[in-house]
């Protein structure tokens, strides 16, 4: 059982680190870079980036993997002193997942489905996208997922003692 506990917690920690890193990358690099571009470039680049991120590595391993592995880690740590920290990480990351599904994905889908940037009013699409809203909620995802990653790392420390 100890091997299962450590394995699930390590998987949760690694997946959470990858998910937090992806959200952070959008916050400190991708969105600031796109924000400095013209409307056509912004729409085209965001569409391409959103299509590219929809893959098994990010969606399966990182985004949902962090949630699933953390839930499994909580289950395998019932009665262990790391459990409260793992549960706190699970709750924080669940907040990031809900924000993603409720805010970021609908905005992503709107811009992705707007059409070919060469044939649409890219200024209107960019305005409807609402960069400030997307960026603000992404910062909440950065904070919650990074805190969850830290809590899982602490849980690993407690488990190794």
UniProtKB/TrEMBL annotation:
Transmembrane segments: 6-27, 56-76, 82-103, 135-156
InterPro entries named among the record's database cross-references: Anthrone_oxy
One Pfam entry name: Anthrone_oxy
Keywords: Membrane, Transmembrane, Transmembrane helix
Top-level taxonomic group: Bacteria
Protein's name in the database: Putative membrane protein
